[in-house]
Amino acid sequence: MSASTTLEPPPPATEPSSKNNSGSLSAYLGQNLRQYGMMAALVVIVVLFQFTTDGKLLYPNNIAALIQQNAYVLVLAIGMVMVIVAGHIDLSVGSVVAFIGGICALLISDHNVPWLLAVVISIMIGGLVGCWQGFWIAYVGIPAFIVTLGGMLLFRGLAIVLVGTTVAGLPTSFNDISNGSLPNALGFLGDLDGLTLVIGVVAIAGLAFSQIRARRSLLRNDLRVEPFAAFVAKLAISVAVIAYITYLLAESAGGTPIVLIIVGVLVLLYTFVMNNTVFGRHIYAMGGNLPAAMLSGVKTKRVNFMIFVNMGLLAGVAAVVTTSRAGAAVAAAGQNFELDAIAAAFIGGTAVSGGIGKVTGAIIGAFIMGVLNMGLSIMNVDPAWQMAVKGLVLIVAVAFDILNKRRAK
Fold first, then answer.
1. Which of 164, 228, 234, 344 registers the highest number of CB atoms within 10 A of its CB?
2. 116: which residues sit within 8 A by CB, 6+ positions away?
3. What is the dihedral of CA 35, 41, 46, 47, to 10 degrees?
4. pLDDT 10s digit of each residue in the chain, 409 long?
5. How far apart are CA 23 and CA 325, in angstroms?
6. In the prediction, which pLDDT does 28 show?
7. Are 78 and 362 in contact (CB under 8 A)?
8. What is the full DSSP assignment across 136-188?
9. What is the three-class DSSP state of 74?
10. In the beta sheet, which residues pair with residue 330?
11. Which residues, at least 6 apart from 308, have a Cβ–Cβ distance to it below 8 Å?
12. Is the torsion defined by CA of 367, 341, 263, 176 positive or negative?
């Protein structure tokens, strides 16, 4: 019997080639359905409003306005992702934005502080607010929901006391943070802003280099990578989107908005923090399994404290952006900002139960909300119905997340 039986040696373990990748590709897409579903949803929403608004949505000036109007959501959503991934929530950021925005405006208008120094002081005050809330959450043990709910009332009251009605008369250079664009230092290529084109090319090259380098690093260490077809498709779509947005901005009246550079730097910085630092891994560990993280030596109190300090700093940045956008500080500023940030995080794939979420996903979620706002505004839809649509989108996104988890189990 043994003489008539031959055993084939097992094939070497290698990365699946593209020709036999169909099974692994479908499995990968199934496991990442939420991520790609949100990207597809953003594309569908853009196409839908481009059709229903007779092409007005993607006017170059509208794209620049979309970025400028939603910069505060983009900034706050970055910090909110970290908070939610760790298993918490922050209901106070809107009130903190109003409070710090009032301080910033008063420093500039009433105390003649140079606007750049006032910006730095405002962000530092945001960090102190984060220290205050982080202390009660991390070291006293009060749930973040209660602490930030109290902070929502506390800082809204302080904003009303400080600002009163309106603090205006802010310098143009300060207002340009959110309303201005980078100077056209490289001239024009036809009708296109040269500096914007250079920034777009650099962004595309940087994205391609970082993605290819990260994939090669995973392969060298025999770690799991996404199927090659999915990698190429995702990179090609990302490059096409960046190239198209670059073209539209280069054709707009001002070119690259200043606030886009601020948001871009923050996205790159916090993507690196969440993916490549011990602090980021500890946040995911705590949200995924808190008891296991504590047994593994994660200093959960310090991590929780730093998460809310960071949220305060980003609220300070959002306060500066909001105040410069309005050209004044008002006590009612920041209304529902916390809801916009939370919705952007959830729509972008952050899990309600914590442990799962990406900065880039939150940015996609924020743009979905922004496109909905702009598209419905162009169509002259009543603001009440706009709120109803956004609420419906949030419920559908969270339901999709829950159903996707059940299907995976």
1. 344
2. none
3. 130
4. 444 444 444 444 444 443 443 345 565 555 566 667 778 888 888 999 999 998 899 999 999 999 999 999 999 999 999 999 999 999 999 999 999 999 999 999 989 999 999 999 999 999 999 999 999 999 999 999 999 999 999 999 999 998 877 888 899 999 999 999 999 888 888 889 999 999 999 999 999 999 899 889 888 888 888 888 888 888 898 899 999 999 999 999 889 999 999 999 999 999 999 998 999 999 999 999 999 999 999 999 999 999 999 999 999 999 999 999 999 999 889 988 999 999 999 888 888 888 888 999 999 999 998 998 899 899 888 888 888 888 888 888 778 777 776 766 6
5. 50
6. 58
7. yes
8. IIIII---HHHHHHHHHHHHHHHHHHHHSSEE----HHHHHHHH-B---TT-E
9. helix
10. 166
11. 83, 88, 90, 130, 131, 133, 134, 137, 138, 144
12. positive
Q: Greatest CA span in the chain, whole angstroms?
A: 98
Collapse the DSSP code of 189 into the 3-class scheme (helix H, G, I; strand E, B; otherwise coil) and give the result. strand
Q: Position of tokens 């743009």? A: 367
What is the phi-psi region of residue 256: left when phi exceeds 0, alpha when psi lies from -120 to 50, beta otherwise?
Answer: beta
What is the identity of the amino acid at 97? Answer: V
Residue 228: predicted pLDDT: 84
Q: Number of helices (H) and strands (E) in the chain: give both, helices first.
A: 17, 4
Burial class of 395 by CB neighbour count within 10 A (0 to 12, 13 to 18, 19+): exposed
pLDDT at position 8 is: 46
The residue whose two tokens read 């940045």 is 317
Amino acid at residue number 58: L
pLDDT of the residue at 21: 39
Nearest by Cα to 100 from 180, 150, 162, 149: 162
Long-range contacts of 272-278 (CB under 8 A, 24+ apart): 274/81, 274/82, 274/85, 274/358, 274/359
Asked whether 348 and 77 are in contact (CB, 8 A), the reply is: yes
Helices (H), 296-382: 300-326, 337-347, 359-378
Locate the domains of the chain by residue range: 51-180+277-408, 184-256
Full DSSP string of 220-250: HTT-----HHHHHHHHHHHHHHHHHHHHHHH
- Spatial separation of the C-alpha atoms in residues 53 and 157, rounded to whole Å: 40
Coil, helix or strand for 193?
Answer: strand
Q: What is the DSSP letter of 15?
A: P
Q: Which tokens in the block code for residue 325?
A: 């956008």
